[in-house]
What we know:
Blueprint: E1 2-7, H1 13-28, E2 32-37, H2 63-70, H3 76-101, E3 105-109, H4 116-123, E4 128-132, H5 147-160, E5 163-166, H6 169-178, E6 185-187, H7 204-210, E7 217-224, H8 231-242, E8 248-255, H9 259-268, E9 275-279, H10 286-291, E10 295-297, H11 308-315, E11 320-323, H12 326-329, E12 339-341, H13 346-357, H14 360-377, H15 380-391
Parallel strand pairs: 1-2, 1-3, 3-4, 4-5, 5-6, 7-8, 7-10, 8-9, 10-11, 11-12
Helix pairs in contact: 1-15, 8-9, 8-13
Amino acid sequence: MNILYHHRTRGKGAEGAHIKGIVMAFRKLGHKVTLSSIHNVDPTKPIDNSTKQAVSPQPKKSIKHRVLELTKYMPEFVFEMLEVLYNLIALRQIKNEIKIEEPTFIYERYSLFMFATVWYAKKYNIPMILEVNDSALVERVRHLLFKKLACKIEQWTFQNATGLVFISSYFQKLAQDNYQNIAPSVVSPNAADTDVFDPTKYPIEEAKANFGLTGKTVCGFAGAFHHWHGIDWFVEEVISELKNHPDLVLFLVGDGPRHQFIKELAETHNITQQILMPGRIEHTEIPKAVAAMDFGIIPDSNDYGSPMKLFEFMAMGKGMIVPDFTPITEVVTNNSNSWLFERKNKQDCVKRFFEIASDTEQLKKVGENAIEYIENKRQWRHNVEQIITLAQQE
């Protein structure tokens, strides 16, 4: 099949990993995929070391790129109006791509206020699959000013697409409860690229030696240091007791608003040797860092998200301590392929952390189960197989 994949993202972090995972899985199954985006981003291409992002060569920034760079400084109502107006750009881009590629179907990573692709696909009877990772119905970090308009557009697109791919059953139920007669849908959580996240490529002791962690039991975190991820309160809660376990280390990979707070906290408690913070590293380097860990932790999440790192850690044989939000319990079997604690219960999280850190046998067994689970159920090809079934249903 010939697939046109459209997205309105910068293709960085988890979203870039998700796009790459889906596209590469399609291609490995023998399908052609053409990527289309306003930023001309292709996460499947090698990292450009001069810019630190995967992009197709561009000799000069266009006006639309310069406008997009200014959006971070704009008032919310201006930003949202630009999102609406983006449909004009998307429509022109999609029309040109369709003329050239003649796709079997269009696959789009859903964005708020986007309707042009669905409208065009419907008009010309082209199957259209929407992947839903966001919604106007959920509480968002960025306050939504034109929420009623966003919901109206969202309802129309969900009703007029050929099929919908939700990353969690929470998203699916939310849409079904609030919008009538949405398109047929499937629930397809995130997954892992087992060619990249392959524990056989990174011997544990060698990885630990590379990061100065030889002889240590290592609990890892990788991601953005935002308050809603909970890594700041987690460190606050464990830091006093951590001193009584000198061979237990927190290896915290990433950067963000709470990075400096945690760094200063470790310095204040004179425990920097047990709280290592190497900063942000490229996604391609994450497997090497995860290999040095014995298990991982996600202190907080939300009702609708499917944390990418959960799947990547599990693929590397690292069970994770995770809160029991529904999207996570759909993936994790407690004490089997990872460990659950009661969401928002800090004491329960801390208790699980110290219990698990001291149980070497359990760390090994759960890690092995995690690898088996990912290989059998949560590789990107499993997602793609669902998508193909959805696209062919007519």
